[in-house]
């Protein structure tokens, strides 16, 4: 489906599985329409990498200047895949915001360097910061993504919420008069952000807080695993991490996953053991 926005620009939309019939549908589309900005998701890029797609070798992509990734954190390995297999002279922008704010708290900067695993810049017009549990700004360590001042696209109320209780509970209960977005992030020395996952999904085994994205980053390096989701489960007075995986066809989830004797198993098992150790 193609919809004209203006004489200078055209919005390209794709409806259907991007992996039918062979995974190249979106890259075919990019070449056919002279696409300049390719908007996608971290999950799509991970799936393309696992499918062995090499658009740099199979497509021209001469007009493509920018690729944006959202939906979930783009792992450092995702950055490497884009520049290795898709295009090396491309501005890759991992961005993060929300439908509710119609905007981004972190986005790309075409004039600045792209660092693997890092969202480049804080959103324009956004007083973005990272708070610890006591509401103090922190750098170089994980905390809550907040916005300390009102911003142009901030919603002001919810439907069917006459006293504003649901609205206040969604964003302002955590820190007084400060928008708390619910992302667990680290603000870097470059004023970029590394997103570790949703703060309400942070795992806490043995009192050590772990973002779900940190788990997924390791699991996604296992070619045998197509998809995964992890949860925290209260267990014997503590919390344990339970990981659910969908494996490639023909791969079995067996006791070898917990075996640390790499010499006793073939390479397929070695990769799985490595992920477990990480």
TrEMBL record:
Domain of life according to the entry: Eukaryota
InterPro entries: AMP-bd_C_sf (IPR045851), AMP-dep_synth/lig_dom (IPR000873), ANL_N_sf (IPR042099)
UniProt xrefs under SUPFAM superfamilies: Acetyl-CoA synthetase-like
Bilayer-crossing regions: none
One Gene Ontology term of the molecular function aspect: acetoacetate-CoA ligase activity
A Pfam short name: AMP-binding
Sequence ranges assigned to domain AMP-dependent synthetase/ligase in this UniProt record: 3-150
Protein name according to UniProt: Acetoacetyl-coenzyme A synthetase
Organism: Geodia barretti (Barrett's horny sponge)
